[in-house]
Specification:
Elements: H1 2-7, E1 20-24, E2 27-32, H2 34-40, E3 47-49, H3 50-55, H4 72-134, H5 136-144, H6 150-163, H7 165-184, H8 189-204, E4 220-222, E5 232-236, E6 242-246, E7 252-256, E8 265-274, E9 282-288, E10 301-304, E11 312-317, E12 329-338, E13 343-349, E14 355-358, E15 370-376, E16 381-391
Helix pairs in contact: 4-7
Bound molecules: zinc ion (ZN).
Zinc ion (ZN) is lined by residues 10, 12-13, 16, 33, 35-36.
């Protein structure tokens, strides 16, 4: 076939091989050159190279052959191929990482053996010095060959040990510190830091473009059965911000329409507004997925503008964000959340003068899903979600 193909030049375009197939309905050519093929069809999908056909193996799929009623099927098949590529990616990644780790481990092992020899040597030197300064064998000898003047000789040796106490201590401690220096060369801190970095990098592997989250593409929902939540009014303002208020005086919880990703760092900003009511029961916090439709937010992981029923109240900068009871409140706060590091911090915005954080970080449970949530009671109060962003790193303003 190869030979036959080589011989087959186009009659019209002498420089071109007839190395293509064109499989179009009513326009089938089993040998055609590129120029001819392009002239007689606009459907480039229908042109296939001889070689492509010849080398197609068990798992090869043409991008548009055989002809089908719905060509979409090919797109789906190619998605399948992509799934296979992703699977292969992970298999290769594991293999490569394992290989590199094995190489490194072996290098470290042989280095450790060298160090062991070195420390064995150091141990021998230590024993030599010890045997010398202790006069162990001289004393042994005197006892074995006990004679008239042995007692005096022994006494002299022991006295001499006391005279040389300082220099003997020096001799031995110098040797120990040399030994210590070898041991101290072993450093686990940096390798552990690198291990954490590698795991962090693996977490960042992502094949899918996530839509960016901001205030414009999130919604707030009413708790389905907690107290008076269904009486809440949630509306999007013209500037995109989300306003939540209560139509009667009763507790209501509202939560964001997405589960917080423990590895993401979220920045929410919220306006708390109260007029003619000093009982500012205005709460902002996070609620467990299983509790969102039937439990209160207060007493959970939350900040409360009334100053009580809250756990986010450990002052880390300035004073408490709650500034005392006031009948008129119009303040904006920033809430930072990073569940993986058990961070829930609240600060007044935009000056960040006062910062509080969750007092007992153990309240944030691992393997537990949370949502951002607010709670409100009085119909004269308002909570407005003004901002949401996801950041790579929190800045150091709070
Ligand atoms: Zn031609």
């Amino acid at each position: 076939m190869d030979q036959e193909k080589k011989k087959s030049f186009c009659n019209i375009h002498a420089n071109f091989n007839n190395d293509l197939l064109l499989f179009e309905q009513n326009n089938i050519h089993t040998k055609i050159c590129l120029i001819c093929a392009k002239l007689i069809t606009k459907n480039i999908d229908k042109i296939i190279q001889h070689d492509e056909f010849l080398h197609a193996d068990q798992s090869y799929i043409f991008s548009s052959f055989p002809p089908l009623e719905y060509e979409d099927i090919y797109k789906t098949i190619f998605k399948e191929i992509f799934i296979e590529k992703i699977n292969n990616y992970f298999i290769e990644l594991k293999k490569d990482i394992n290989k590199n780790i094995d190489v490194l481990h072996n290098q470290v092992k042989s280095k450790l053996i060298q160090m062991e020899d070195l420390s064995d040597n150091q141990g021998d030197i230590f024993l030599d010095i010890y045997n010398e300064v202790s006069s162990k064998f001289d004393i042994q000898k005197l006892y074995k060959e006990y004679s008239q003047d042995s007692e005096q000789r022994l006494k002299d040796i022991i006295k001499e040990k006391y005279q040389n106490l300082k220099s003997n201590t020096e001799k031995l401690s110098k040797n120990i510190s040399e030994y210590q220096a070898i041991i101290n060369k072993i450093n686990l801190k940096t390798p552990i830091e690198i291990q954490q970095k590698i795991l962090g990098l693996i977490d960042q592997i992502d094949f899918f473009e996530k839509p960016k989250k901001d205030i414009n593409n999130i919604e707030f929902e009413k708790s389905k059965s907690y107290c008076g939540s269904q009486k809440l009014q949630i509306q999007r303002l013209q500037n995109g911000q989300i306003q939540i208020n209560q139509s009667i005086d009763r507790n209501g919880v509202s939560y964001a329409n997405f589960i917080l990703d423990p590895n993401q760092k979220y920045v929410f900003r919220v306006k708390l507004q109260s007029h003619s009511n000093s009982d500012s029961f205005l709460l902002v916090g996070i609620i467990q997925e299983q509790d969102k439709d039937n439990k209160q937010l207060h007493n959970g992981i939350c900040y409360n503008e009334r100053g009580n029923n809250m756990t986010v109240n450990k002052v880390v900068k300035g004073n408490n964000v709650f500034e005392g009871i006031k009948a008129d409140i119009d303040k904006e706060i920033e809430v930072r959340i990073h569940l993986a590091q058990k961070i829930v911090k609240v600060s007044n915005y935009p000056n960040y003068q006062n910062v509080v954080e969750l007092e007992n970080k153990q309240l944030i449970l691992y393997e537990t899903q949370y949502r951002f949530a607010v709670e409100i009671y009085y119909s004269v109060h308002k909570i407005i979600i003004t901002h949401l962003s996801i950041v790579d790193d929190f800045d150091d303003k709070m």
